[in-house]
Design a protein that fits this description.
Blueprint: H1 36-46, E1 50-56, E2 62-68, E3 73-79, E4 83-94, E5 100-101, E6 106-109, E7 115-130, E8 136-138
Antiparallel strand pairs: 1-2, 2-7, 3-7, 3-8, 4-5, 4-6, 4-7
Amino acid sequence: MTKNATPEPAHGSATVLIDREIDWDDVERSKRRSGDKDALVAAARKVGARRKKLARGEQGFFMNRSAFPPNFRVPPHHHTHDELLVVLRGGCRFDGELADLGPDDSIVIPAGLRYGFECGPDGMEMLTIRTAEADFTIES
């Protein structure tokens, strides 16, 4: 390299996430729950809803995989960060006619937007992708 040449950019290692090698979350060990959130998570787990954290901040990405049973209701809430939801299987209807999503559909939800949804008769599996670990607030 000559004195005035632009240096090669530094690259880190890639992070490989193998879904089948990542366990579904153990709700009992979660440390981020409190109050209404704790009750919501317990009720969801009881009817078969589950989540696994895939990306946990690698290169600034956070990604969860969630599975919901038929007709499962996610109550109105909002997050502290923007998020991208991608439906893998099944589908849902968002409150207030925001959207009806099926397999391969997605929605970008900005931070602070209040939303809830109900899964369809086949339930739903989805990915949630964020650029920060987002907290949420349940609304009544």
